[in-house]
Structures are given as structure tokens and as C-alpha cells.
Write a structure and sequence with these properties.
The strands form two sheets. A seven-stranded mixed beta sheet has the order 1-7-6-5-4-2-3, sandwiched between helices. Strands 8-9-12-11-10 form a five-stranded mixed beta sheet. The chain is of the alpha/beta class. It has 13 helices and twelve strands.
Length: 381
Amino acid sequence: MKFGTKTIHAGQTADPTTGAIMTPIYQTSTYIQKSPGDHKGYEYSRTGNPTRNSLEKNIASLENGKHGLCFGSGLAAVDAIIKLLSPGDEVISTNDLYGGTYRIFTKVFENFGIKFHFVGMENISNLDSYINGKTKMIWAETPTNPMLNIIDIKALSIIAKKNKLTLVVDNTFATPFLQRPLDLGADIVMHSLTKYMGGHSDVVMGAAICKDDAIAEKLFFIQNSCGAVPGPMDSFLVLRGIKTLHIRMQRHCENGKEIATFLNNHPKVDKVYWPGLKTHPNYSVAKNQMDDFGGMISFNLIGNNLNDAITVVSNTNYFTLAESLGGVESLCGHPASMTHAAIPKAEREKTGVVDSLIRLSVGIEDINDLINDLEQALSKI
């Protein structure tokens, strides 16, 4: 089954009672049992719900995995994955990563005795000096948020397997339409389904996908025991969104290329961060492991003035100033004061998140309207 067919059909069956072609919203907390333990596969909706399970099968198929688990948010998925570890364990993480992930690593899990090393993974050799007997996991985002760095997943997997480490890849920016980390050797893929997978800025949800039965069993136990599960209505919304994932992502990529080219030639723009530019330091890796380059773009301004960045993001019409990304509508953000405000200034600037950095989530609107919108906003500085 090809990807575009999977988005519509994988994990989906018509409702056996009515023949409804769409997966029903099973808005129930509990299920009838004929006698104790004699039921139709469901007991309680924290443990399992038919709408959620249809979504979990669908996303597992899209990532070429065997097991899919959905959570109440992307950070709930991160939380569950890190709970695979024990006090004293160490994690090597991308140093350029989503601020919420950095926050839960440093402000929550470090308090429970887990140590995190934040390392630039564009050069894989940087990892060698951090691997020791306590290292248990490698955590990678690629493309990274917000600097759009590209990490060689296959090279990471070789290091992980050599050292018997669990490799986790956050595939939120790429989606399985562009990149399938399990095929490249990752052990677990995680998503904020809130973003491109849902695609309509109307739901908050996360997911973890894997092939290994033992890892899946542990994650299912954590999912059920800790209870950070999504409801059936949210599961339905993500299922509906995924049906157009391949169509939406194609337009995101097309528009992303046009916007990146426009910004790269603009006199008020200093640097553009988009993996499809041949000047990107890991362009060759991106071209090899991704099917296209996506609609996420970051750029900073000549002079690196904070007020200039605020002026630009406050004067767009179609690029709405808002948190999040990956919806059909274009969004803009100021990472230093929004998504990455949890990261100390000295740390964020080391990774390139400077005061004038602007992040764009390029939507699927008419490309001429989007370019004109950015042109008029940049003319204000």
C-alpha cells in the first residue's frame, strides 16, 4: 500500500453496526461485559478506545512501524518515552530542540536522577566523548526546531546499535510523508500530532511508534498506568486530518521552497535556514534521507535587532503570530520570546536562536499572497 493510500485506509474499517465509512467517535468511558473478563476487547477507555486504536494503527502504518501509541500531547509522548529510563541513566540529546522538550528534560526528569547531555549532532563524531556506561538513549530532532539542522539518522543508528542505546527521533517537522526514521534504524519515533499530522490547528496530541515488541509493551504499560491518553473526539480529528496529509505536505513543500528562495534574496535578511537550500551545511544528508524539504523556515535579520524582529512578526497579515506550526494556515513566531523562552539566552544563542530569529510555518495559501505579505512586513524595518 502506497503512502497516499495508507493515509486514507490504514487501520480503518467500516463501522460493523451501521456500515459508516468514517471511523465513529466512540464517546464512552466504559464497556459492557457479559461476565468478568468476557468483553469485546475493550474494558475502559484509558486502556483502549476503538477510535484511538484506529488512529494508533494508522500512524504505525505511516511510519512503517508495528506499534502506535497516542498521548494527550507531544510532551506526554516525550514523558512516556523518558519513563523507560531509570535514575542514574544518561541521555544524549540534540542541543537545538523544542523548548518544551528541553524544559521537561532539565526541569522535571533531571530531578529524578536522569542526566542529559545536549550536543550538536550535525557532526556525528560529537557524540563519542559523551557515551559511557550510563548512557541509555540518544534523542534527536531532525529537522531541528527552530534552526532546521539536519541529523544523519542512519549514522546515529549505527552508533546507537554499536553501544546498545535506544535511538529516539522526533519526526514532527518532517512527518512520515518526508522521512521515516524507523526505516533508517531508529528504535522509537515520536510526534506532536498537533502539528502537521493533525494539520488544522484544532487538536493537541502526541504519539510514539516503534517496531520492537518489548519496547511497545513497556510503552503500553506506561500509557495505561500514567493515563495521559487522548479522547475519542481528538482521535477522530487527527484521523480526519491525516487523510489529506500527503496533499497538504506537497503544498507545504512547494510553498516552502518559494518562500525560502524569496527570503534568501532579500536585502534585509541575513541568513535563511531551510534544508532545501544548497548552502545548508547538511543539504546532502537532507536530500538523501528526506523525500522533500518541508515548509518550516527560520531566518534572521541584518543587524540582529530584537525590535526589528518584533516589528516584522507584528505586521504580517497572512502569517499569523502564534505558537505552534504545521496547520494549513501560515504562522510566524519569535522563538527567543515564545517557543524557546524556557532555554537560557546564553544556551539558545549557542545554537543560533538569536534575538532577531523568526520562524515561519508556511501554510498552503496562495504563494503570491504569502510572498507579498512578507515583503510588506519587512518593509516596516
